[in-house]
Fold:
Amino acid sequence: MKTIIHRGSSRGHSNYGWLDTHYTFSFANYYDQARVHFGALRVINDDVIDGGGGFDKHPHDNMEITTIVLEGTLEHKDSMGHTMQLRPGEVQVMTAGKGIFHSEYNADPKIPVKLFQIWVFPAEKNLTPRYDQKAFDPSERNGRWQRLVSPDEAGALLLNQKTWFSRISLSADKNCTYSLHDKSHGAYVLIINGSADVVGTRLETRDGMGISEADEIDIKAVTDADILLMEVPMQW
Structure:
């Protein structure tokens, strides 16, 4: 088993006034040659968007993009004709494919939006762009893995890559195990809130760990913990 630890305090950081963001991997004006990606996982941005703020229309191509809203309401508009709002518990996916434009704004003038935006390199390039979103019941991840994203599972949002995103809420002192779909894959564990021992290493809120060359990943909550796990190919 190989592991790499990214403490929350070691992430890149930018504050643009309307946007306060932390970068797990190199992005925008933050660059670290040792932290460009983990396998096919390219971006984990931890964004706080002030009331009324947002990203003006901008392009993407050949990237699989997932947005997970933690607090507030995010409004999304894109060149495919979608105008949608995302709230806590909702997840959005986009296959940018051969090219899209979109904008993202805080739909509330006062309450900040808190979200993760996650990018994964695609398995196939230049596809027709695609959009989907879904609300996930938080009670269905109490003590068990709730699948958010998959290449092929009913009930999960689909991405154009052999990647599985799963979320779990663990009470203090409870254990769980995650079994990888393929030993050639890796898993990136992100502690959204709380603290947990992940394969024997203590992780706190917003700490991340990349794990490869493993069949299973054992996790024990130290405090109540909200955990996101992203399984991705290490080669693609």
